[in-house]
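Hi U.,

Before I forget, here's the chain from the pilot set. I'm dumping it here mostly so it's searchable later in email.
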Amino acid sequence: ALIMAPTRELGQQTAKQLVDFSSNYKQLKVEVVYGGASISTQIKALKSPTQIVVATPGRLLDLIRRKAIRLDKVKYVVLDEADEMLNMGFKEDIDDILSNIKEEHSTWLFSATMPSDIRKIVKKYMTAPQEVAVNTEQKSNTDITHQYVVTRTSDKTSALRRFLDMQPEMKGIMFCRTKRETQELTEELAQKGYEVEALHGDLSQAQRDAAMRRFKARNMQLLLATDVAARGIDVNDLTHVLHHKLPDQLEAYTHRSGRTGRAGKKGVSIAFINSREGRRLQDIEKNIGLK
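Structure:
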């Protein structure tokens, strides 16, 4: 089986679950391959028979080109977080990889949203597919309290600092729109003495792992992340989700907020908006049926 995922964090998480599930089935070998790590180590690992490969598209293509992996025996293909893979510009890579699989196989595609580009992949690579839509009602979790703060863009950092001062025990994620914004805001808060870390695509794998270790060990208040970098994060007991800016897609708001208020615990989602964004807030209220 071949499983493709948009980020290394998600790939690692998926591979770990597969290893846990199959712990009593010793002859099953799972390998995870992604960019930013030594390709020669991965090539070596793939030399022994491997039943399931979890991969990010870019690294998988590299391995195919180097003839380190062959897809002629693949029986199952899983495209996980397909919309995110397209958002990250992997469309050509995915086309390239799927066209390498000649044998008859079954394809599974998972996606939070179904834009036209995803429909094209479905049409091109899947035969008479069954579509399963789960919870399309966009129900909001009743354990999450939704709040917003109206502030000038230039005052957002000061407003955020007030929250961090009031909630020293908080363990939250703040979503930012761009890698640059994430990094700049993290540096600004760190200089002022706040326990924060950034998580975005420009960091090395070692930096990302270190940030996640600190966060999971509760050694900081706030992780600042882009939507893409946060996709593979699995963290328990988040008290707050903060939105530096509202996301473009309404579904993304539900995804972000849903990281708190899990397993019966209460959580708070706070959006920092300027006076012009009230309309978008109404759209979100209507979309997920909350005040």
